[in-house]
Amino acid sequence: MKAIRIHAFGGPESLVYEDISEPQLKAGEVLVQTHTVGVNPIDWKTCSGGGAAPFIGDLPFVPGWEFSGHVIACGSDVSGFTSDDGVFGFVRFPEAAGCYAEQIAVPAEQISLLPPSVDLKLAGGLALAGLTAWQALFDKGALKPKQKVLIIAAAGGVGHLAVQLAKWKGAHVTGTASSSNHDFLTSIGCDEVLDYHQADSLSGDRRFDLIIDGVGGDTGIDAVEYLAEGGCLVTLPSVTKDAVIAAGQAKGKQVLPIRVEPNAQQLSILASLVAEGELKMHLATSYSLSEAAQAFKDIASGHTRGKVVLTVSQPTL
């Protein structure tokens, strides 16, 4: 079967489209015919030697942690899934999961069934960003109705889902984005949109109960100033989390890091929200599996609106 592998850490040029052996199904696993896989910043960071690289082990390595597809077979001890079921998931993170491949064997406890009305292509990019948004808002941030939330980088893969989930919860949502994304963010529920190109967009006495920092670094550090008393900032980028946490400690503010975790129950809720029209994932671009290098370039630019995915195979149903 075809897959994307790296034989040495490096840039997009290190991605090799090649034949590999089909996965062997083990106890507790489901064998899936992959339809779509999500492309995320953690993918290119890991392939370049950062991100989750310390957890990968020996090369070669097949990237990818999120997918959608159809069940081919189940381990003898697996229940709840049958052949041809539509499923999606975020699996094995931060260890290697190998989702950039035509078939994958995945832990049954980390995947969820897809309602028939949910598009397979969109579902392939939903799990990682959706779980990150959910866990940042609700598990870490403990967001409550009527609270004020600021989402930095609100038009991105995580950000645009966080906007919708915060509105679903009943929060007042402010997002930051370039001016070209303001109408988009208003259309998905932002009560206010700030242009991050304008130095004074965050100023004065603005205060937020929860800030989701999707940028980190100086942007995250500066945002600490705008936390309300008792508020919380959740910073997503791991590479700058220590600096943002230190800035919070210096001001007596709560700053929390996050590493997204697989969670089948939360995936099921996200899928139901999509099926009910409460949550819509915006697809920025879709590439074929063999075009993964170009997808990496798009993601690394930091300017995509919504999610980038790779289409691995056409649905069989």
UniProtKB/TrEMBL annotation:
Pfam families: ADH_N, ADH_zinc_N_2. GO terms for molecular function: oxidoreductase activity. It comes from the Bacteria. SUPFAM superfamilies: GroES-like (SSF50129), NAD(P)-binding Rossmann-fold domains (SSF51735). Residues 10-310 form the Enoyl reductase (ER) domain. InterPro entries: ADH-like_N, Chloroplast_QOR, ER, GroES-like_sf, NAD(P)-bd_dom_sf. This is NADP-dependent oxidoreductase.
